[in-house]
């Protein structure tokens, strides 16, 4: 709990985590015994189930923030802490992220974190979103998204930060960065991550129109790498991990860092400006009004 | 006519237009009543027919510079002025560019503007070509190319500056940047625009070989987005516009600017050098000779 | 032999060759009579057969360093010298690179150059690898790879530096940058060249997993441009060259340089750091151990 408490305080948050981020491109992080003592292999918050198989070196992280794995500040912090723990655990070489909720991988950023909140709170939230991206996108582990449900907006971002994406072949599921449909805008590092995944032109259209793709179309544009029947998503992810483990970790990690470092550096060097920009945008009256209308629509849908 | 006269003088040209360009990433430009008074909704030069439907917010700009919509200095200036007017018109949210000439969308830059002209005139022409690209590529409007005929060289560039390209599925039509076939070279911002559209490798081969693609191949490489029967090009463009209008303008515009700004900034900061470079290249004896041979070949073909 | 002797001395090597490289973007290099006197059209080292057809302007360079065209320092130097000679020969407009060894185009960098060698020798070797890339990637000639066998690692790099790749449609052949499989890492300019060829995302996965593609998959991802039956690889390359010759050389060369210059500039300005980095990595005990194990595995396979 010490680590987590530390992470909650803003200075601790950015301090500890970004310190670790900065290590990530130089190979495995060697952790001190003090920190190791705090580690629990099968740690769980109520919102996450994390199981590390010490034999295979594969951890499975199950998102379980009902009803739709909305990425609240608390939930994102849980994810960051647990990814960080696994990162420091030498017995863990790979991470599979999947959902324990039916029909949805993650519905994306929690809109309630952006509606009617103080600028300070909005800034804290945004820093956490950045941190989650940083931790997963720069992870030394091989990270596979086992996308067993819909994955819009922030859910799509989380998927794209992984190394490989396996999606359930269910035409009712969709994935994409659909922010503009809500009147909000994906920031530059969401965009950069999508360009790295599906190229410039597809991103240009997808972001402007806020497109959500069914699995088959997502495969076609390269937004996911593989489709399998819904009940085989996790098993396929586990099996796929052996391909990634066949490569010596140091060679894979240096290569991954070489590919992603420019994108990560661009984000970290614009991090404070990006927070400022988000807070100033999201607290605008017109944007707050858009969000209120969207929330009311969601309420009506439920009723 | 005042605006247009102003645009003809070089200092006015770069002054007024680039001032407007610089606004384009900050949302809709608010125009003064004086300028509005000069606006005519269904303004036409002899070379352009522009119809704005105030109800739908869609303007259709028909290119009609016989016989093949060659982009002369005069014609380009007409295009710039009319795009600028629509940009300033709050009732206009989308622009469709199409051709009123049979079989051709636009044959590209008018070679007569590059052959036997003074360096000053060549420079003025090139500045106008840059301006047209800047105006359309950075437009706050959703811009759709309804490509109802062949679209080589500058015609392809104009198409690529739009947000979406619908082409007539007629195998006799072709599209591409074929400059090298004439012994001239597409400048870096033509190249950047093509890389943004079809990727690096396709651009590398296409530009070196001056490839023209039939509609089916253009669709395959992503140079156009959709093929429809010839008589449905404009109707499909109009219908497609509703998808773009479904997104709040501010979110779409910020996203578009985020995608294109690096490419636009690179061009504007190298604008004068690019003009100098063009003038020095095009006025070379060897290049002038190439162009003369090409013009003579065209004459023979006609005869 | 004077040129070659000169190239062997490190200062001469970087001097003469990089001087020529620096000319390559400004059109054909005009050579002095002294240098021309040293030129032999159908020059051959024991490891290379070079035939220039003065009529067509096409040179064919056959790699013949038995058994598998491993790229040793000597062999790479031969390649550099011969590419340089052809570059200076005004009668030569195009180069086809192919193999005279059965079943293999090139097995890539000679591991014996990296195992048990002094840091100085490793550095000399790496500078030569860089030089080969520079010479071919920035060549003013149209360069076609006639890939008539497997082409892993450095063999794939050599292929990717060409303008066009035609591969034998034999499912037993493979191509790719598989360095991580050996526990080593492709440097940034290998990566940049692959991104330029197949895009970011494909490169990201391919490099991390050290993927080798069969011809059919290589075609699908764009790593090669065309597949033909094995006995038609060279003939197709020769025929394809006529398409490249149909474009005026100056226009094609300026365009090629415009596309590749940023990648080349990035490499040349990081050249010394890249050598230092390679030497420090490859001389590590752990990496030397990996290479020894790999070499022992190869020996056992042969036996």
Sum this structure up briefly.
Chains A, B, C: Its EC number is 5.3.3.8. Chains A, B, C: Keywords: Acetylation, Fatty acid metabolism, Isomerase, Lipid metabolism, Mitochondrion, Transit peptide. 3 copies of one chain form a homotrimer. With 303 residues, chain A is of the alpha/beta class.
Describe the structure.
By secondary structure, the first copy, chain A, is α/β, with parallel strands linked by helices. Chain A has helices at residues 2-8, 10-23, 33-38, 73-88, 119-137, 154-160, 188-198, 200-209, 215-221, 233-245, 249-269, 271-282, 285-302, and strands at 44-45, 48-53, 58-63, 70-71, 94-99, 108-109, 142-147, 151-152, 164-168, 175-176, 226-228. The first copy, chain A, has one domain: 2-enoyl-CoA Hydratase, Chain A, domain 1 (Alpha-Beta Complex). Chain A has a 7-stranded mixed sheet, with helices on both faces. In chain A, strand 2 (48-53) and strand 3 (58-63) form a beta hairpin. In chain A, helix 5 packs across helix 12 (271-282). Chains in contact: A-B, A-C, B-C.
Estimated structural class of chain A: alpha/beta
Biggest interface between chains: A-B, 22 and 23 residues
CATH superfamily of chain A: 2-enoyl-CoA Hydratase, Chain A, domain 1
Rounded mean pLDDT score of chain A: 88
The tally of strands of chain A reads 11
Give the low-confidence spans of chain A: 1-41
N→C terminal distance of chain A: 39 Å
GO cellular component, one term (chains A, B, C): mitochondrial matrix
Protein name (chains A, B, C): Enoyl-CoA delta isomerase 1, mitochondrial
Subcellular location (chains A, B, C): Mitochondrion matrix
GO molecular function, one term (chains A, B, C): delta(3)-delta(2)-enoyl-CoA isomerase activity
